[in-house]
Structures are given as C-alpha cells and as structure tokens.
Amino acid sequence: MEKYILHTSASRGHANHGWLDSYHSFSFAGYYNPERIHFGALRVLNDDTIAGGQGFDTHPHDNMEIISIPLSGALEHKDSMGNSSVIRAGEIQVMSAGTGVYHSEFNHYPDKQGQFLQIWIFPDKKNVTPRYDQLSLNPEDRKNKLQQILSPNSDDEGVWIHQQAWMHLGRFEKDTKVDYQIRKEGNGVYAFVIDGSFIIDGKALGSRDAIAISEADIIEIKSTAENSEILLIEVPMEW
C-alpha cells in the first residue's frame, strides 16, 4: 500500500435521493470502486445531508461500530435496545451493533436540512452485546488543537468502541501547526477536511478532501485558512 493516497472531494461516490444527498468516501450501496472498499478497519465515511423531517427508516446492523457526528441540525435516534434520543451538532453518537440491532435516524427539524458524518469501523471482536452511547463535546477543547472524541478505552476521553481506533477533531486559525502522534504502531490515519484547507505532510487538501496515510509515526498538520476543521480517524491496517 502507498504511504499516501489522496481522495479529493470530487472523486467520492455520490447519490442524491432527494431527501438524502450523500457522498461516499468508500464503496457503499450503489457506489462501487474496487480501489475504495475500506482503509484498514475504516469501512464507511458518508457525508450526508438530510432534508427536513426525512431520514432512515428502521433497518438492521450487526458486527459493526457505527459513529455519527452531526455537523449541523439534529438527528432523532431510535433503536431496538430501547434508546430514543436527539443527537445535535456538537455531539457524537456511537453504536456497537454486535449480535444485531435495529435503528432509525430522522432529521429532528421538519423545516431545515441537517448534515452529519456517518462512519463505520470493523470491530476487533464479533457478536458483542449491542450498546449505545452519545456525548456532548466541548468545542473549546479543539480550538487550535486536536480533541480526542473516540478511543478503545471506556475511561478515556470521548466515546469508545471495540477496536484499537482513535478519532480527533480540530478547528484551527490560519497557519496553525500541530503534530499528530500515531497511538498504536501499525495503525494508519484517514484525515478528512470538514472545512477550510490544510497541508498534511506536505500535501495540500481543501474542504471535503481526504488523505489516507499509512506507515507513519508522526503526521504534520498545518491549517492554511481561517476556521479550518479536520477529522482524524486512526485505525488498524490489519485486525
């Protein structure tokens, strides 16, 4: 595998269903690209915009760690574990599907669209008891630095999943520099630009561009526009 693989925003899969406008970083539903099935344990990164009052009817999942990060608006969540909640921008939701779970997700607002990132990560163990969690994130904790929002450890910062994976968010003023240290040897990082622009290990990325990085220990990140926001997803390349 190459050490760096650039995924530009325009190269993603795209499906506009009217009520749902979705961009796929990896093969998903009707979009298939044999070179983009997954990056290590990262299976799905969908960039979704949902029309007011619309959403995903009840459907099943199993043996997958599913993470939702609302970027604007709010989502109503219901599942077969008895959870019923609203997940708003500034929060993160995680669901370990394990032995199997049914859930639905709808735009909480009838009159305005919502945006969220949907992420699937392969677990490191199968058939676990399904679980659900959500957490409010403090935006000040990612101002000009990287805020950990997910890890393998239930007693660490952010939510946790059944995988040796970490996720970080950062929002930066222009020309801010930060280094990211790989948490586990052999892991790779998928860096996704939510907004603004960055130079990552010398490669220029704009809004919704991404770069897959493997065989690295430290990643150098520099913002090149005001209010630039980035998501880092560190996952095992083998599991």
Q: How would you sum up this structure, described in words?
A:
By secondary structure, the protein is an all-beta fold. It is built from no helices and 22 strands. The strands form four sheets. The protein has a seven-stranded mixed beta sheet, with no helix packed on it. A seven-stranded antiparallel beta sheet has the order 2-3-4-11-6-9-12, with no helix packed on it. A four-stranded antiparallel beta sheet has the order 5-10-7-8, with no helix packed on it. A hairpin with a 4-residue loop joins strand 7 (74-79) and strand 8. It is globular. The two termini are 16 Å apart. The mean pLDDT is 97.
Short description:
About 0% of the residues lie in helices and about 55% in strands. The protein is mostly beta strands and about 240 residues long.
List the helices and strands and how they pair.
Layout lengths: L3 E4 L5 E4 L3 E5 L17 E9 L4 E7 L3 E8 L1 E6 L4 E5 L2 E6 L4 E7 L6 E8 L9 E6 L9 E6 L7 E2 L5 E7 L4 E5 L5 E9 L2 E3 L2 E3 L4 E4 L4 E6 L4 E9 L3
Parallel strand pairs: 13-14
Antiparallel strand pairs: 1-20, 2-3, 3-4, 4-11, 5-10, 6-9, 6-11, 7-8, 7-10, 9-12, 13-15, 15-22, 16-21, 17-20, 17-22, 18-19, 18-21
